[in-house]
Amino acid sequence: MPSAGTGFKEIVINDRSEHFYKNALGESKETLRKFCELMVAGMTKPPPQGSPIAGVHVDPRIKNTKGPGGHNRRSIDFKEGSSGARRGAGGRFIKGSGGGGGGPVFEIFTETGYGGWLDIGTSRMPARPYFAPNFEEAKRKID
After folding, report:
1. Contact 51, 57 (CB under 8 A)
2. Residue pair 82/103 in contact by the 8 Å Cβ criterion
3. Which of 10, 13, 76, 133 qualifies as a FRET site for 90, CA 20 to 30 Å off?
4. Which residues neighbour 49 within 8 Å (Cβ) at sequence distance 6 or greater?
């Protein structure tokens, strides 16, 4: 039916984009969660038999090192937040401190304080990469 005096036909549009956005967001979150679970599982699995890090870690100069290694491996985990949040003291997400529209944000971390140095190495220690190889493996499994 033409609008009064314009000669144009009135068109009614029902916007259902919010419905599709929520569905896509839900699927994205599930995919990201599965990806993080795969990465953490890969990084926390026991080292291969015969690996130098599979044995007992003993350093007589440092107190309390007379047990099996793997402290970094046991501390690896992930958390879910949103793009409107950032991590504060104690690893807690603080809402409203980031940009974006509140989309999903997943963070994979280690609580040892030296996990990054194990991954990239230092001037006194060769790198023992575990993050990138597990990232690629998780990516292959998701695809």
Report:
1. no
2. yes
3. 133
4. none
Torsion of CA 49, 52, 56, 57, to 10 degrees: -150
Taking only the tens of pLDDT, the chain with its 143 residues reads 555 666 778 888 887 788 777 888 888 888 989 999 999 998 888 766 655 555 555 555 555 554 556 788 888 898 887 665 555 544 554 444 444 456 778 888 888 888 889 889 999 888 888 888 999 999 999 88
Tokens of 29: 């979150």
In sign, the C-alpha dihedral spanning 61, 116, 51, 41 is positive
How many helices (H) and strands (E) the chain has is answered by 4, 6
93-95 vs 85-87, strand pairing mode:
antiparallel
**pTM for the complete prediction?**
0.62
